[in-house]
Amino acid sequence: MGKKHVSETPATALLKARAVAFTEHTYDYVEHGGAQHSAAVLGWDPHHVVKTLVMQDEAAKPLIVLMHGDRSVSTKNLARQIGAKHVEPCKPEVAQRHSGYMVGGTSPFGTKRDMPVYVEAGILALPRILINGGRRGYLIEIDPQACVQVLAAQPVECALPL
């Protein structure tokens, strides 16, 4: 089949425990390649490849934002919608501490620390998405509604063009 099996991650363990169906997609990870790279390699529209971003508010409380691969986050709009004064991306080592995943392999599922999850509303309208499965070079294809069912993700509107 050409797909290599990836050993279980905290993300896939959680999805299996919750009976969420997913398919695995592996690719050769490229440093700073991001969603654009994985979309190109896997033949997906980057709009359907979802980035998992660990951010923090003014009190340094972490949160996760799920964003289209071809968009960036308006931290100003996000902060306003979630009632924060200010939101900014976490430094990589801080993000890693909160999520338990290496940057570039961060999944919103099975994080070390429970964090509120916000999902760009347009993602929920897509039939299927690719999202990180908890390892670099490893994406899983799922129904975006799983983000709401498993993570209690709150829809927000904070997408900006890249």
From TrEMBL:
Residues 36-146 form the YbaK/aminoacyl-tRNA synthetase-associated domain. Keywords: Lyase, Protein biosynthesis. It comes from Comamonas serinivorans. GO terms for biological process: translation. It is an enzyme of class 4 (lyase). This is Cys-tRNA(Pro)/Cys-tRNA(Cys) deacylase. NCBIfam families: YbaK_EbsC. Its EC number is 4.2.-.-. Belongs to the prolyl-tRNA editing family. YbaK/EbsC subfamily. It comes from the Bacteria. InterPro entries: Prolyl-tRNA_editing_YbaK/EbsC, YbaK/aa-tRNA-synt-asso_dom_sf, YbaK/aa-tRNA-synth-assoc-dom. GO terms for molecular function: aminoacyl-tRNA deacylase activity; lyase activity.
